[in-house]
């Protein structure tokens, strides 16, 4: 995956309106400006590399990054579903998956400009900034550049605190705490492990540990963490020393359907997804998370995009809200109940991969969700960290449940 571009944030804080508030979180739009519906399978999109792309449709293909028409449709679907969000979190990765040599700085800036203009056009009144100061008395958004911690970033490999970002973060959170503010942390590359393949972490271990320490120290004022990069729909739990859930990080799915080329991942494409959160404006506590999606093959077959509700997290896992305790309970269900695991697994690829999640799959997902620390993740995969699945005979019924949920 390419080193992501800048993190971008767009906002108009509706402090005067009554709770609950709503905000969008979108990520990984990955525009492929050269996508075209060509009959030559080698001419469809540069983002497929040397893979042939048969049956390319107007709305995109699972082997390619997003054509403009798909991104345009996702932004206008947001406008139709929730036209007046308090703000929009946009956590980067705008350019196609092509070798760096193929993408000049001018081309990158052009893509960022084009996407920014589109979002501004759909949501006028909103303003744009890379780093935002406090948005209301109660709230502050902290935008991190976690590319500094990325294991492929050689420039920061030997540094203890690249750009002194950890020191800055600690100061910002300490001041926020003194001022009685609550905080959302957003970034692109997340800490922890990729849930679709074993032992794949993005941060270097030292940076991963440091991030965990920050969350443990300041969790009382961290109302949510929002990241992207995976293109999948997942979440990460954070615990204190006594094992109590203290924070949750939501990983929002990508708009791009691009099938990852990461070694070890089987069929890692996804349907395009967009997500809205419902939250309490006074406390920033997360009340619900709602994901909408486009069934890409269906859109191409019908010749029209239909963005549909995929799921509400409270309904999917039978929890009262989207806070850390509730998501801990949701994880407990995913780990121990085959129906909940299968539902989670289908949502993970935005209803693209409907295969059964077997024992190895369950261990990979549950350990990635539960353990952000390197040593604890390894111990989880080795040991009895994953509760046993109740009974495989339940699987067909569970799958039927998912189907019913998806067509409704
Ligand atoms: Zn990406």
From TrEMBL:
<keyword id="KW-0479">Metal-binding</keyword>
<keyword id="KW-0862">Zinc</keyword>
<keyword id="KW-0325">Glycoprotein</keyword>
<keyword id="KW-0732">Signal</keyword>
<comment type="similarity">
    <text>Belongs to the acid sphingomyelinase family.</text>
</comment>
<dbReference type="InterPro" id="IPR017064">
    <property type="entry name" value="ASM-like_Pdiesterase_prd"/>
</dbReference>
<dbReference type="GO" id="GO:0046872">
    <property type="term" value="F:metal ion binding"/>
</dbReference>
<protein>
    <recommendedName>
        <fullName>Sphingomyelin phosphodiesterase C-terminal domain-containing protein</fullName>
    </recommendedName>
</protein>
<dbReference type="GO" id="GO:0004767">
    <property type="term" value="F:sphingomyelin phosphodiesterase activity"/>
</dbReference>
<dbReference type="Pfam" id="PF19272">
    <property type="entry name" value="ASMase_C"/>
</dbReference>
<feature type="domain" description="Sphingomyelin phosphodiesterase C-terminal">
    <location>
        <begin position="245"/>
        <end position="382"/>
    </location>
</feature>
<dbReference type="GO" id="GO:0016020">
    <property type="term" value="C:membrane"/>
</dbReference>
<dbReference type="GO" id="GO:0005615">
    <property type="term" value="C:extracellular space"/>
</dbReference>
<keyword id="KW-1015">Disulfide bond</keyword>
<keyword id="KW-0378">Hydrolase</keyword>
<dbReference type="GO" id="GO:0006685">
    <property type="term" value="P:sphingomyelin catabolic process"/>
</dbReference>
<dbReference type="InterPro" id="IPR029052">
    <property type="entry name" value="Metallo-depent_PP-like"/>
</dbReference>
<feature type="signal peptide">
    <location>
        <begin position="1"/>
        <end position="18"/>
    </location>
</feature>
<dbReference type="InterPro" id="IPR041805">
    <property type="entry name" value="ASMase/PPN1_MPP"/>
</dbReference>
<dbReference type="InterPro" id="IPR045473">
    <property type="entry name" value="ASM_C"/>
</dbReference>
């Amino acid at each position: 995956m390419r080193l992501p571009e800048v993190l971008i944030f767009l906002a108009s804080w509706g402090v005067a309106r009554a709770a609950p508030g709503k905000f969008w979180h979108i990520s990984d739009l990955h525009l492929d400006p050269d996508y075209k519906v060509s009959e030559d399978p080698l001419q469809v999109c540069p983002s497929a590399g040397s893979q042939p792309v048969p049956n390319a449709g107007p709305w995109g293909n699972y082997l390619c990054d997003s054509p403009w028409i798909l991104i345009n449709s996702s932004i206008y679907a947001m406008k139709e579903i929730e036209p007046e969000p308090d703000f929009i979190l946009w956590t980067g990765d705008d350019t196609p998956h092509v070798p760096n040599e193929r993408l000049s700085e001018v081309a990158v800036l052009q893509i960022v400009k084009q996407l920014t203009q589109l979002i501004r056009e759909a949501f006028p009144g909103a303003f744009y900034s890379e780093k935002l100061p406090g948005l209301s008395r109660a709230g502050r958004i902290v935008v991190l550049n976690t590319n500094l911690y990325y294991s492929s970033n050689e420039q920061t490999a030997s540094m203890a605190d690249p750009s002194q970002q950890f020191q800055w973060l600690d100061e910002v959170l300490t001041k926020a705490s003194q001022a009685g503010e609550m905080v959302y942390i957003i970034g692109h590359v997340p800490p922890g492990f990729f849930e679709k393949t074993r032992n794949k972490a993005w941060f270097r271990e030292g940076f991963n540990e440091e991030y965990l320490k920050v969350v443990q120290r300041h969790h009382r004022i961290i109302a949510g963490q929002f990241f992207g990069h995976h293109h999948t729909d997942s979440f990460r739990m954070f615990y204190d020393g006594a094992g109590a859930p203290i924070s949750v990080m939501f990983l929002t799915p990508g708009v791009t359907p691009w099938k990852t080329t990461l070694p070890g991942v089987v069929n890692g494409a996804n349907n395009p997804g967009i997500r809205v959160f419902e939250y309490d404006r006074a406390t920033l506590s997360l009340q619900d998370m709602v994901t909408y999606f486009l069934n890409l093959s269906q859109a191409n077959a019908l010749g029209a995009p239909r963005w549909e509700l995929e799921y509400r997290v409270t309904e999917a896992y039978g929890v009262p809200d989207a806070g850390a305790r509730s998501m801990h309970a949701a994880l407990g269900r995913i780990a121990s109940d085959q129906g909940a695991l299968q539902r989670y697994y289908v949502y993970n690829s935005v209803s693209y991969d409907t295969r059964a999640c077997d024992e190895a799959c369950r261990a990979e997902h549950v350990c990635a969700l539960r353990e952000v620390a390197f040593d604890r993740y390894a111990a989880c995969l080795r040991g009895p960290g994953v509760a046993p699945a109740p009974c495989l005979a339940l699987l067909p019924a569970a799958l039927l449940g998912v189907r019913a949920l998806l067509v409704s």
